[in-house]
Amino acid sequence: MSATHTVINQVPLLVDHDVADDPALLEGLRREGAGWAEPGLRELGRLAGTARAQEWARLANENEPVLRTHDRYGHRVDEVEYHPAYHELMTVAVANGLHAAPWRDPRPGAHVARAARFHTWSQVEGGHGCPISMTYAAVPALRHAPDLAARFEPLLAATAYDPVLAVPDTKPGLTAGMSMTEKQGGSDVRANATRALPQPDGSYLLTGHKWFTSAPMCDVFLVLAQAPGGLSCFLLPRVLPDGTRNRMHLQRLKDKLGNRANASSEVEYDEALAWPVGEEGHGVRTIIQMVNMTRLDCVIGGAAGMRAALVQAVHHTNHRSAFGQLLADAPLMRNVLADLTVESQAATTLALRLAGATDRAFAGDEAEAAFRRLGLAVGKYWICKRTPAHVAEALECLGGNGYVEESGMPRLYREAPLNSIWEGSGNVAALDVLRAMGSVGADALLAEVDLAAGADRRLDDALARLRKDLAALSDPDAAQAGARRLVERMALVLQGSLLVRHGSQAVADAFCASRLDGDWGVAFGTLPSGVDTGAILERVQVG
What we know:
With 543 residues, this protein is an alpha+beta fold. The chain has 20 helices and eleven strands. The protein is globular, with a radius of gyration of 24 Å. Residues 281-437 form the Acyl-CoA dehydrogenase/oxidase C-terminal domain. Residues 178-271 form the Acyl-CoA oxidase/dehydrogenase middle domain.
């Protein structure tokens, strides 16, 4: 009998490589003051590239969380069961400080080091990054209540992951969630209807319904509710000090497009006990610090998704032949891969710069704080918008193989839109840029771009056009209607400046020739002639 299943021209598995071996990532790590973290980052990168870590990701997504509302006797238990692989992912993330290392060890570059690790480990599996990110973000908001911070911050910053439900003070480490969104309001949290009734001992009883609470198995949550003095922020534990369950009832888990390994739920509070964080009526002002920290992770996560998809595309085309040649040697495919590389490296470079600004802002640098305020809003909008298109093009490089679940690309594709929605969709992010310019102005961002003045004519011309756009902002309605276009220009000019100053010459030239000079098509793979695709693609070889 003839053999009909001889396997030829198939791509070997991409395993046992260093996921952190990314020039843009490593250069940013060193440049932003965290070169000391490189050995640990490379160790995490090697783990991320193993077959074992990839198997954890597969199992965590194929065996989705399951809600158990009651036990066999009818008692409410409100528990979410996860596959053990999910806990393996969480254990590595917490042990490597992705959730809180800068708060435990606030040395210079701590936020950059943590951003690089988050970027690397997120490429294994993005869903479990949600509770990791929220725990990281909860600490600065919690500091509005010094007594609560003194009690809980050491546990939030601990490097022990313990999924067992228990009194927070008795656990070796904690994770934190955030509960803001309600069905009638969405991003408009001021429309929240959950009520907070003050008690004689200073605590509050919360009653209401939250429409979207991710990672409901966290130990503590920051919750927005209407107190007598207005919308306020509260810390709500799942287990009370006496060991009883708080009256936080999980109604159902959301059936989401992606992010399948992570549970997101509807929650009902029925006189749930909570403690105030910050003053009554200042809930948005308090929790916005948490929101801004998670927005940084949206930027990092978007850049990580691009990198993960790009690496798979390059690996596939380096091993797959068609029409008598390797796909990676075909001029048109090289254009596509180079274009995807430029986008990925621009995103990673901006993410690391924003992490560096975070370090310096927490150290008291007011100029960096102003840059971070505006740059973070710009980066959140643009990088998260670019990720879905980028991942889709990378998936297409694998052809039909990329459309099959076993490739891992569909999971990346389903995950890609999440960061653009989380912590404010595109319109919310664009409007936040306008608010940021109203509070801190645009001078800090323009000063950052000006550091590259004279280095590239195309960048200089784009900056001049942007200054005219900013000077023309007068009519609020017109500014809002054109906010997306304005934010896009701000993002491209900022990325261009960073690449001209810090990136490879080939990447910077391709970026300016395409994104800033107008010689670029709508789809990826339309870089203009003369771009050094070979030099660009040298920066994305793996294995």
